[in-house]
From TrEMBL:
Keyword Ribonucleoprotein: no
InterPro entries, per database record: Peptidase_S1, Peptidase_S1_PA, Peptidase_S1_PA_chymotrypsin, Peptidase_S1A, Trypsin_dom, TRYPSIN_HIS, TRYPSIN_SER
GO biological-process terms attached to the record: proteolysis
GO CC terms, sorted: extracellular region
Membrane-traversing stretches: none
UniProt-listed Gene3D superfamilies: Trypsin-like serine proteases
Protein name: Peptidase S1 domain-containing protein
Assigned protein family: Belongs to the peptidase S1 family.
Alphabetical UniProt keywords: Disulfide bond, Hydrolase, Protease, Secreted, Serine protease, Signal, Zymogen
Primary location recorded for the protein, binned into one broad class: secreted
Organism for this UniProt entry: Pieris brassicae (White butterfly)
Residue span(s) of domain Peptidase S1: 10-242
Taxonomy of the source species: Eukaryota, Metazoa, Ecdysozoa, Arthropoda, Hexapoda
Amino acid sequence: MCKIDIEQRILGGQDASEGLAKWQASIRFGYWQHNCGASVLNERWLLTAAHCMYSYGQYLSMLSVVVGTNHLRTGGQRYNLESYILHENYNPTTQANDLCLLKTSTPIVYNDKVQPAVMPTEETPPGSNLMLTGWGEMGTDGDIPDNLQMLNFTSIGTKECDDKYKEFYGKRGKSFPITDKQLCMTANQGTGGCKGDSGGPIVKDLSLVGVVSVGVVPCGYGVPEVSTNVIKYVSWIKQHTGM
């Protein structure tokens, strides 16, 4: 039986070209263990999903972020974390307000492989072309890629997404409401997010419009994927980061 899984993965993606997602970061537990994705916002702050830090926050000294590489095992620059800010209204049951800010101990250095994400300035309409990047498993309980993966999606409306979740999960007792503070998207069946992509960026025309939040197990089952709708939180982000 399928179940809701808040740790998404990329299934059916392809290797991302160098420099495709210069804002992409990998949150590491210990030195090598990739935990979640994140996006560089400015020299000191990154954005990820609240559920990525909800249980790991007590281990802050063991966490770091790596930026500036398309490879999990080589390259890039590593930064320790100084602090984090969970959204004050984060709900771990429904995944509402699934956002978290990460502050690095030292400034992030920009170069030709590291640049900040661009904040969105308008809503993402249904039918928009979106792109997810990440190092999630390439299938349920599958291999973790060394190369950064990318996958294209199409956004759908909130009501359509909510109806599909109620139809699929309602009879399993797992349904939760989809709101306009979330952004839904679909890909071809057999493709989608998978474990390790949580917290990673969803972009439209180079703007960071979503943060990977909720998916389905097994991966690529065909039910819409849900991200946190960044446009609804721009003021919150700027308030805490000084952007």
